[in-house]
Design a protein that fits this description.
By secondary structure, the chain is mainly α. The protein has four domains: 149 residues, Rossmann fold; 155 residues, 3-Layer(aba) Sandwich (Rossmann fold); 51 residues; 84 residues, Arc Repressor Mutant, subunit A, CATH 1.10.10. Helices cover 45% and strands 10% of the residues. Strand 8, helix 7 and strand 9 form a beta-alpha-beta unit. It binds glutamic acid. Glutamic acid (GLU) binds next to loops. Glutamic acid binds next to loops.
Amino acid sequence: MEKIRTRFAPSPTGYMHLGNLRSALFEYLIAKKENGTFILRIEDTDQKRIVDDAVKFITDTLSLCDIHVDEGPMQGGEYGPYYQSERLDIYQKYAKQLVDMGKAYYCFCDEERLEELREEASLRKVAFLYDGHCRNLSKEEILEKLANHTPYVIRQAMPKDGITSYDDLVYGHIAVENALLEDQILIKSDGYPTYNFANVIDDHLMNITHVVRGNEYLSSTPKYLLLYQAFNWTSPEYIHLPHIVKEGGKKLSKREGDASFMDLYNDGYLPNAIINYLALLGWSPINNQEIFTMQELIENFDYHRINNSPAIYDVKKLQWINGQYIKKLSLDEVYKLVMPFLENTYDLSNKSKEWVRELIRIYQNHLSYGREIVELVSLFFQDEIIISDEAVEFMKQDGISHTLEVFKNQIENITWTVENINQAILNTKEESGAKGKLLYMPIRIKTTGQMHGPELPEALFLLGKDAVLKRLS
Ligand code: GLU
């Protein structure tokens, strides 16, 4: 069997949408499952963008996520260069070849003429399609314009009739009438290729076996297939991925403030948890397993199980998965994860290192992401605690003030240790007769303002005796 080769082909924009990262992940998994090759190709044919930092950003993100590139700008490889901007002569050569074969043509229409066509189309309320004006220029006319350096683009000459179809591995049979396809631009007037051309040339020359990308390319793929046919090349398999959408169906978008990979990372989400979550966005394993190491993903991933309905981005689920990963960290690792957030928010100068470590330890199992530590532990750094309406309601029950009074007396004269606090709670139970929720909850609410949290004796110990007594009064 032919060795699987997949590619991640980002444009260097300087950030990584979750959708992009998911494409990279699926491409990686599909290749690695069969011991194939995963390629990084930088699609930098839009020269207005600054590339250097953006490429570093992409490669840093992939390595944080444990996605290893086999061939690419940094690794090199037999099929380079891996920057499209360094492959311009290749695109030129193949475009000219298409012109010679009559499958593409020079178009000298200027912006003014195209603008008129666009206006006309908009008046008639139809989609603008180039009208093929330059398709039948005579050889002499073409040579003359070229000799005069008239600016031109090269357009694909679409067949006027027939149907082009393919079987997408996720969406099934896709068929388009050729008459509806525009004579799309392959080479722009600045000599750069369009995505529509470069993706075909590169996927072919780089021997890509499976093209995995967002479904925005689903309906333009027939145009690409006509290029493969023109060259008499075999086309790769196509795996188009459903969009990641928000609740309500809107696409995730950076412009609307939706989180990118780096936003999540900077909020203290763990890259391997993000990857685990993304794997489940659009793909489902055979069983109900939800937590996967990269190795398990590689073994279990099966593109036949990619679903073609939109994948809904669910922050709660991401947080749950991330929380599972945080639980498994060592204390040192959690410490490293949350310390920057603590230091940036609170004055820790009068707290010992042990105290801070203990605080982090008792909250480890309650954390969904690093930055969340700030709100979880705010009660340790504020004089005034805020009590929720729900908690206020709870405190209205009979007997609660008595229980609190008993507890206060119990702790007044003890040495402040976790064990003694625990004993004081047990004594309070004995003396007041309160038990279960009616024992712990009032103490928790009165001292921490919260209805949920870490083990009560441990939390009280860290709060300190003075603060606890003060809050009880
Ligand atoms: N540069 C394209 C993008 O970022 C790549 C699409 C593809 O994978 O073919 O959308």
